[in-house]
TrEMBL record:
This is Beta-xylanase. The keyword Ubl conjugation does not apply. It comes from the Bacteria. InterPro entries: GH, GH10, GH10_dom. It catalyses: Endohydrolysis of (1->4)-beta-D-xylosidic linkages in xylans. Coiled coil: none annotated. Residues 1-346 form the GH10 domain. Keywords: Carbohydrate metabolism, Glycosidase, Hydrolase, Polysaccharide degradation. SMART domains: Glyco_10 (SM00633).
Length: 349
């Protein structure tokens, strides 16, 4: 097939989330795919606090260094995901040496040290940061994370200020899932406006894009794109994938329904996708890209949350033992030609 990144040159960047095996070259089959199709790389896990800064003062930079080297090799931009999140952050971060919760000042100081170490090391090498990830609930209220409990929304402001100070040339984003939900979109925009009003830079808002076959609707996604752009912020789709399996979670992020059987009865396509579901997947990708293309002036990047189906987080979420089909390459790293062609056709029309 033709190359995704070449087809979309001058329209938007085409990205993929990668892990340690792609970064260090163990996954030899991923390399030619990344090289041919992608000009933006996001670390799926290895820049998160627990991975890059597992113990107080101890940094584990090597996997991320390798990702940066890979990006240089294939001439891709690097997205820094993510500096501050409530998830994959070890408990010690919030505590003193006696296990007591840190004061606001002490916690923010620790956060700033982290940003200084991480963004400092990759200064000039990261194109843009998901500075803060998932700080809101779906209803638009601030998420009651340990960050928020201790520091209120100041943790967000201070994170943006610090990142800009450490790497002034990097773009700065707020990133969240279910960003099509009006309350959540509005809350993120409100936050971004507040930051700007206080002279704190924020360049864009990331809509993750973990979608289903039928929901959310194109209309509701389009409304969110327009709102974000009208407020003066760049839009990017940062974690795109499409889940074709039954899913007990009222779309991503809510607690798992405990009554949902943890057996394999919902793993309904383990022998392969039926033709009519594959056809739906093709048309879903096509219509999503038509929407993205329609708003090319507002959108700067589309990143897929993984390279191939076998490596997708959706094989393990919301429960292990799923056989998921969310991406553009199958579990054997083969191109899904019908989807890729449809997506490329959109770029060329
Ligand atoms: O690395 C350990 C390994 O040593 C251990 O043996 C294994 C056993 O469970 O766990 C491994 O860590 C897992 C890690 O992925 C690396 O594979 C964690 O358990 C697992 O929780 C973690 O999941 C990641 C998840 O974020 C964490 O919340 C997914 O891979 C990653 O795709 C997902 O990405 C997030 C974005 O960052 C933010 N938006 C939502 C998106 C999907 O949840």
């Amino acid at each position: 097939s033709q190359s995704l990144k070449k087809s979309y040159e001058g329209i938007f960047d085409i990205g993929a989330a990668v892990g340690v095996r792609e970064a260090n070259g163990t996954d030899t089959k991923a390399f030619p795919i990344l090289d041919k199709h992608f000009n933006s790389l996001t670390p799926e896990n290895l820049m998160k606090w627990g991975s890059i800064h597992p113990r107080l003062g101890q940094y584990n930079f090597e996997p991320m260094d390798r990702l940066v080297a890979l990006a240089e090799k294939i001439d891709a931009r690097v997205i820094g995901h993510t500096l501050v999140w409530h998830n994959q952050t070890p408990d010690w971060v919030y505590e003193d040496e006696n296990g007591e919760r840190l004061s606001k000042d002490a916690l923010l100081h620790r956060m700033e040290e982290h940003i200084e170490a991480v963004a400092g090391r990759y200064k000039g090498k990261v194109f843009g940061y998901d500075v803060v990830n998932e700080a809101f609930f779906d209803d638009g209220q601030y998420r009651t994370s340990k960050w928020y409990e201790t520091a209120g929304k100041d943790f967000i402001k201070r994170a943006f200020i610090k990142t800009q100070e450490v790497d002034p040339d990097a773009e700065l984003y707020y990133n969240d899932y279910n960003m099509w939900k009006p309350e959540k979109t509005d809350a993120a925009i409100q936050l971004a406006k507040e930051l700007r009003k206080e002279g704190i830079r924020i360049d864009g808002i990331g809509m993750q894009g973990h979608y289903g076959l039928d929901s959310p609707s194109l209309e509701i996604i389009e409304t969110a794109i327009n709102k974000i752009a009208d407020a003066g912020f760049k839009v990017m789709f940062t974690e795109v994938d499409i889940d074709v399996l039954p899913n007990p979670v009222n779309r991503h992020g809510a607690d798992i329904d405990a009554t949902f059987p943890a057996d394999e009865s919902y793993n309904i396509y383990k022998e392969g996708l039926p033709d009519e579901i594959q056809a739906k997947l093709v048309s879903r990708y096509k219509e999503l890209f038509e929407l993205f293309k329609k708003h090319e002036e507002k959108i700067t990047r589309i990143t897929f949350w993984g390279v191939h189906d076998g490596g997708s987080w959706l094989n393990n979420w919301p429960m292990p033992g799923r056989t998921a089909y969310p991406l553009l390459f199958d579990k054997d790293y083969q191109e899904k030609k019908d989807i890729i062609q449809a997506v490329i056709d959109v770029a060329q029309n």
